[in-house]
glycine--tRNA ligase
Amino acid sequence: MAITPCCTCPFPRTKPPPLRLKLRQPERGHGSFPTGRKFPFYYLMVENNNYHVCILCSGNSSFGLLNTSSAVIQVETAKSYSISMKNVVINVSVEDRKKIIFEQSNALAESVNGQILIPKGLLDEVVNLVEAPFPVLGKFKETFLDLLKDLLTMVMQKHQKYFAVCDANGQLLPYFVAVANGAIDETTVRKGNEAVLWARYEDAKFFYEMDTCKRFSEFRKQLKNILFHEKLGTMLDKMTRVENMVTKLSCLLDINEDVQQIIRDASSLAMSVLATAVVTEFTSLSGIMGRHYALRDGYSDQIAEALLEITLPRFSGDILPKSDADIVLAIADRLDSLLGLFTAGCQPSSTNDPFGLRRISYGLVDKGVNAEFVRSILVERANFPCLAAKSAYKVKTMSEYEYDPISWKNYLKEPFPKVVEAYSWPTRIVRGKEDELHMEVDETAFVTNEESVLCGTFLSVKKSINPGFGIDDFAEISCQLIQPLEDFFNNVFVMVDDDKIRVNRLALLKGIVELPKGIADLTVLPGF
């Protein structure tokens, strides 16, 4: 959103509101140091679908660490900002803070003959939680090392944002590194973090001991108490569907009987881990704990691995299932989720995908098809159900031939998203005014060239479109409207005071809005 100092900050009058900015921390102020003047910043706040413009004035004040005497400081110029903040022990450079955290944490780990474990994203998260990083080495009881390594590191990293410490062989050591902020009493902070981690580990130990009091297979019956979806039943219902599906898939894929038995045994345990206490608390460990509990109860390595790999891939770039048993089980689980949730009306929108259906779709095709061109289809088209059949056909077609990024580049381009956006602009303007727009468009009432061009294009497109058109033909012809509509909205104000001109412009837009009727109801899509 553009910010204009000392004046009203208008938003484009015919296009969607600016993107909303979400901040991790509450915003207390802005700094601006050009001439010592205060500049107002205008924000569009959204509350109950109503838009409000709010103002936050800037100044040359900034904030030091809140627990110091220099909580508020004055900054003379933009060039002196970094130095001024450094004088109050705040490092404004993300890269410098990251370097300090990494080097000092590693040094602390080396002091106990170890090295820190830094999973993807944790360092980036921690560096933005502190302004003056101060790593502290802590220790926990060695008896906790009897618990699963993944469980211990999950508690440290997810809940406490600590770095785990391991030896040269990757074995966990009874140490951790916490990153404090600013000047601290190191002993007090260390003891405080050790006490918190001790409590967390006691909880994890309690959950684990609860789970190991019974055999893994006994958790299956508890799945009837876990709802998958109100229209699709419980997790036990889902597990039963997956069991039936893997039998059919195994036959279709002509998998040998020995592997089929592994698949059947694994499918009977596949969801049971979701009823365990550990996974209830740490959901992301479902695959790891499923494998662990299966091995503990004497199941074969193949069955245990299948219970892990049914959850793969867990994130972009993650490893994929490898064996036939793992692949069949993973595909059955994803097919059940994907088809069931779409049937239940849970398809993702442009801003919301609570069930992770896009990730499930990628996971389904990731094994046999290069992910890059799958994404270029699904990411662009996932929100247009009317194109689902053609998207599936494209995936099938491309999976049958060798992937060549250059040759597929044009094949993947689609005009539909741009066409939808173009139709959304007039739709939002005429909504609620349809009853008063009964007049025909009067071309003699046009004032601007953009009106005439848009009207001419509209009439041409209208003659070419008929209700028997398919989506692709409709989108291709409608492409002619994209540029005239953009020029119209950039240069023409619709809601003028002159009644004749205003109603005539609205009538033109209403005619454009009605073009898709009988072909597609675009209003059900995001943006309308």
Q: What stands out?
A: Residues 1-26, 368-375, 383-389, 398-412 have pLDDT under 50 and may be disordered. The chain is about 45% helix and 10% strand. The CA atoms of residues 25 and 85 lie 19 Å apart. The domain at 416-524 is CATH 1.10.730 (Isoleucyl-tRNA Synthetase; Domain 1).
